[in-house]
Amino acid sequence: MDNPLHHRDFRYYLTGRFLALCASQMLGVGVGQYIYELTHSALHLGLIGLVLFLPKISFVLLAGHTADRFDRRAVILVCRLTQCVATLGLILFARSGSHELGWLYALLLLVGTANSFEGPATQAIVPALVPAPIFSRAVAWNASVMQAAFIAGPALGGCLYAFGNVLGVFYAIATMRLLSAVLIALVRTRTGRMESAELSWQTLLAGLNYVFRTKVVLGTISLDLFAVLFGGAVALMPIYANDILRVGPSGLGILRAAPAAGAALMALFFAHRPPIQRAGSAMLGCVAMFGLATILFGISHNFYFSLACLVILGASDMVSVVIRGVLVQMQTPPEMRGRVSAVNLVFIGASNELGEFESGLTAAWFGTIPAVVLGGLGTLAVVALWAWRFPEVRAYRSP
Fold first, then answer.
1. CA 260 – CA 29 distance, rounded (Å)
2. pTM score
C-alpha cells in the first residue's frame, strides 16, 4: 500500500503544519504563564480562549467560502505570514514591560483571525495532496504530526520560559511561523477555485446547511463540541502546575504535553492499521473515557498520576479526531470541503477555546477542582445523550 509520506507536497505540508502547530502550543504556554504571573486570575486565563475563539465564530462563513473560492495553498500562506507579524507585535509588547493587557488580547485576536481563515484551507487541501485510496492514512499521519507538535510545543515553551522569560518563547514562535510559511510556499499543488458560484448567502450557508442535513456528520462534530466544552481543563493547567501540583512553568509544559503524548501514540496506531470497523461505537466509548480521565485528573494531587490521566485523556480524544477527520472530508463534495471544514472547526474551536473560557469562569465561581470534576461529569452525560439522540453515529461503520 502506498505511503502518504512518499508524496513530496504532503511532506512539505506536514512539516510546515508541525511547525505552525508547535508555535501555537508554545503561544498557549507562554501567554498563559505570562498572564497568570501578572494577574493570578483564572478569569483572565479563560479570556485567552475567548479571544482566540471569537474570530472563528465571527468569520466561519467567510473563512469557509474563502477556502473554496481561492487557492487553498495561497490562503494558508497569507495566514501564516499574518501570524508571524502578530507574534512580532507580542515581542514588542513584552519588551515594553507594559501591563495593559488590552493590547495583548488585541494581538491574540489577530492571531485568532488568521487561525480562523487558515483552518478550513488546511483541512480541505489534504485530499488534493495524496491519492484517494490512502487518504485515511494521510489523516492519521496528519493527526500524528499534530500530536507530536502538541508534545514538543508545550514542553519547549515551558522550558524556554523557565530558563529565560516570555521573550524567548515569542522569538521561537516567530521563527517557526516564518519557516512554516516558507514550507507551504514550496508546495506545488494548486487547488484553484473550487466553488464556481459568486459570493452570496446561498454559497456562504451551503456548508452549514450540509452539516445540518447530514445527521451522522452533525452528530459526530457536535459530540466533540459538547464533550470537550465541558471536559476541557487546559485553561486551568497553570493553576494546577503552580498552586496544586507545585511544579512551576517547566511542569506546566509537561502537563500541557501529556495529552498530546497519549494522542500521538494512538494516532501512530491508526496510521499503521486498517480503520476500526465499528467506528461510531468506538468513538462514543472513547469520549466517555475522556470524561472519566478528566474527573480523575481534577481530583489528583500527585504529579505523576495527573500525567497518566492526561495521557489517557489524549489517547481517547484522538479516536474521535481520526474518525471525524475521515468522515467529514470523505462524505463532503470537494467543492464544499472548505465551508464544511469551517463549520467543523467552529465546533472544535468552541470545544477548545470557548471551553477554556467556560473552565476559567466556572473555576472563578466554584473553585478549580470542582470546575474540572463537574466538566468531566458533563462529558459523560453528553455521551449518554448523543448515543440515544444520534443512532446514526452509534451505527456508523468505516467505509
1. 14
2. 0.69
